[in-house]
Design goal:
Layout (H helix, E strand, L loop, with lengths): L1 H30 L11 H10 L13 H6 L7 H11 L13 H10 L3 E3 L10 E6 L2 E11 L3 E9 L2 E8 L5 E5 L10 H4 L3 H31 L1 H40 L13 H11 L5 H7 L13 H12 L1
Antiparallel strand pairs: 1-6, 2-3, 2-6, 3-4, 4-5
């Protein structure tokens, strides 16, 4: 009888421990993955940035998600509510991006607005929605982060019960098509760019004054040469004599400039210029996404990612691709 009571107590204690562990896990899931993205006004870029802060979030043991809680269905399938939540966080109007919990309802709305493109007829862009269907049933939706000639990249909620970075071939049979919300593209970059030209305008002003003095001096020299032929010969002899040391000086300068030009190139290397073409654009963001998806060989990985850590976080992730996209828009 004593043994049975001890066994019962042990079972009760173990049950309590398991229950506490499950509740703690559920609370930790609900408390993490805050939206740390600062909106820029470019809504296509903002919605991708917000989604990237959620990668890794997983639903609770009871199926709870904060996206469903926000929508009013905390324990339901949540891929559509995830993208709707991201749009809400980005400040996108429901006239542009309706909140929806049923994938087919979202696809139907964009189709009715003439903002839907079937797979194969359109190159998906960052901020688009990707819809999946099978046997006429639209069963899943994700948020496109970019595409290349072969693959489409996305962030998707309720993918294996969590938020994941996903990539599929553009020819993947379950891709029904892409919705293209009419996002606002007003970026907050002009206010930063305005004060930059002011110091640049002041510097050439002094140079121009010096040039004017030099030109007037040269004009006086020309007039003086025209008056006296003998003097012109002297001047010409002086000029020819002075040309020889100038050539040696120019050679020394060119040699110095060559040696100095090498460190200048390294300094001019653009953060975010992943492919080394001296331009930061969407092609650099796509290379980062291909790297994250494992679609590059080792040689390419070691070569192109010298400047891939665009946000200086110490690691290469989707946030770097987003930063590059924002830089290319700016």
């Amino acid at each position: 009888m004593v043994k049975n009571s001890k066994t019962l107590k042990l079972v009760v204690c173990m049950s309590l421990i398991v229950a506490l562990a499950i509740s703690a896990l559920s609370l930790s899931v609900r408390a993490t993955y805050e939206n740390t993205h600062n909106n820029t006004g470019n809504q296509a870029s903002d919605i991708v940035g917000i989604a990237s802060t959620q990668v890794g979030y997983g639903e609770g043991g009871d199926g709870y998600t904060k996206y469903g809680d926000w929508y009013g269905l905390p324990y339901s399938d949540w891929c559509a509510m995830f993208v709707s939540w991201c749009a809400n966080q980005a400040g996108v109007s429901t006239d542009t991006f309706p909140s929806f919990a049923l994938c087919s309802a979202g696809a139907d709305w964009f189709m009715s607005q003439g903002r839907f493109h079937y797979a194969g007829d359109y190159q998906p862009q960052a901020g688009d929605l990707i819809f999946y269907s099978s046997w006429g049933n639209i069963y899943h939706v994700g948020l496109v982060t970019g595409s290349d000639d072969y693959n489409v990249y996305s962030i998707e909620g309720n993918y294996n019960e969590a938020v994941y970075n996903v990539s599929y071939p553009l020819s993947y049979g379950d891709i029904l098509g892409y919705a293209t919300p009419n996002y606002s593209k007003a970026a907050l970059t002009t206010t930063v760019a305005e004060p930059e030209p002011e110091p640049e305008e002041e510097e050439p002003a002094y140079v121009e004054e010096e040039d004017e003095e030099d030109t007037t001096a040269s004009e006086e020299a020309v007039r003086f040469d025209d008056e006296d032929e003998d003097d012109t010969e002297v001047v010409s002899e002086v000029e020819t004599a002075s040309e020889e040391p100038e050539e040696t000086d120019s050679e020394e300068v060119t040699e110095e400039s060559k040696t100095e030009s090498k460190p200048e190139r390294t300094v001019k290397a653009l953060t975010g210029d992943v492919n080394g073409d001296d331009v930061v654009d969407s092609a650099d963001a796509l290379l980062i996404q291909r790297y994250l998806a494992g679609n590059l060989d080792e040689e390419a990985e070691t070569f192109i990612f010298l400047n891939a850590d665009a946000d200086a976080s110490g690691e290469i992730d989707v946030a770097d691709a987003l930063t590059v996209l924002e830089m290319s828009v700016a």
